[in-house]
Design a protein that fits this description.
Elements (H helix, E strand, L loop, with lengths): L1 H11 L4 H19 L2 H11 L14 H4 L3 H10 L6 H14 L4 H20 L10 H9 L7 H15 L3 H9 L2 H10 L5 H15 L32 H5 L12 H8 L6 H11 L8
Helix pairs in contact: 1-2, 2-7, 6-7, 7-9, 9-12, 11-12
Amino acid sequence: MEALLSLSFDYLSSYDASKIRKGLRQVEGLLAQICLSKSQASAIDRRRSAIPAGSSAAQAKELGTLKDDPAFREFFKLQEGFEWNVAMRLISCLERLLGKGSNGQNDLLIVSTLDLIQGILLLHPPSRSLFAREIYMNLLLDLLDPSNCPAIQSSTLLTLVVALLDNPRNTRTFETLDGLLTVTSLFKMRATSRQVKLKLIEFLYFYLMPEAPALTTVSAPATAVHQRSPSKIEVAQTRSVNGASSEASSYGQGTKTTEEKQGLLGRYLSNVEDLVDDLRDNAPFGGSVY
């Protein structure tokens, strides 16, 4: 597995689009082998080789049994260290892609990278601690720039949800960097597509959910931000996943209730009370809002 990761990391660190694409496909193939049944993973390989897939139905592994799978356990263990952490490499790749500007080919690579980041954060939740660092959270907020295509904006919103999921520390970083201003400004723009506006509403519903304390608590210096600055000019510093945890804001140690979030969001939107009422009445995420 280390050999496969090493090869894919080499491709992901390239500035050549074809090599980056190959690296992304290798990471996706590895995750497919871990998460999917043999028949389904084989179907993916056949599809990539332009060979027609067979008629047999693909079967996914049961989520409850995944933790007992030797391949998954080995993969999870490798993610605990910096050297083989996939999320870190994908974020670095995303940063380089963002610096290359907007074109059709590059946009597709950005969306593919975001999709893989979503997957790895779900498979290895500790990697979410990377987004407690402002430089990486800023990267996602930069991708919500109105100049980016709707596909990038939509995929970024899904990545934000996964990055903030069960991680109040990351949510505090998002708030500190004026993430709510970024999201609501995009929502108010007439040029924003309907598809993206629907994703933005879904994100706001998710954001307004009350938070539960994280399993671990970390601290770091607080940062006051009055206007969000793009991170494109910043230089990323490579650090370990565990090191990223120590850089979270001390402002981010606590959790917030729906009412507290409503007050923050109300600075930028006038109908937040309606969103909260709808959230309480319909419970779109299956939980209770008090």
